Predict the structure.
Amino acid sequence: MSRVAYVNGQYVPHGHATVHIEDRGYQFADGVYEVWSVFDGRMADFDGHMTRLHRSLTELRIDIPMTREALTQVLKETIRRNRVKNGIVYLQVTRGTARRDHPFPPPGTPPSVVVTSRSISPMKTDAIAEKGVAVVTTPDIRWGRCDIKTVGLLPNILAKQIARERGAYEAWMVDDMGLVTEGSSTNAWIIDEHGKLRTRDTQANILKGCTRTTLLDILHEEGIELEERAFTVEEAKRAKEAFFTAAGAFVMPAVSIDGVKIGDGKPGPVATRLRDLYIERGHRDAI
């Protein structure tokens, strides 16, 4: 079946989906995005992603392109037309199309809206999680507003490529103090050598991950204590467990960092349990 994309009011064949060459997303990375996990044809963590979308647009002073209800219908229709049962739906909103110039375009310039959706095999991702993945570290060279989910992801791309070239699944970025900030597309967590579950707080230029937020709710329900406190690379390497969270990865165990085995080199019981609980929540609460 051919894939379908939504572009500025129209559903078109994916292979023919285009935006104008002077779209500000293309020219300046002047836009934001969100990615929802899809469980059984429904979107997980829906409210969290929608709230973050509106915050990102507001922070960048990009007009809200349509009502929440209308956008919800576009997302659902794109999923339906692509017959996605399990996978993702991607939304991108830019400041629109205008003559290339650094200042904002004239008031009333309509934002550009693109939505795509594709299937991802849950069996494939489960198989990866059962073995765990490798992580490498790299300096964090991003800008000072990583709390906004902008499409300007060049530092993240470079970090992810470093991971691929080193045979790893993900890269954890490290600030000037030697503290892990987050992954190239994920939030980082450890069970430290003292058995404390830790992740960095979102006040430190960290993206407030929606999967992260849902996991916080799960931890509260399960009575699992969490310290929102930064950790060094060396603390991570000494950890009993390590994992990361993201819409596409859910809860993914990391079994090595920079080639150093974490724990016994296998996915730990906490990460495995939290992954099961998150997936269970996704199936239950997706809309």
Observations:
- Residues 269-285 form the longest helix (17 residues).
- Helices lie at 24-28, 46-60, 68-81, 122-131, 154-165, 210-222, 233-237, 269-285.
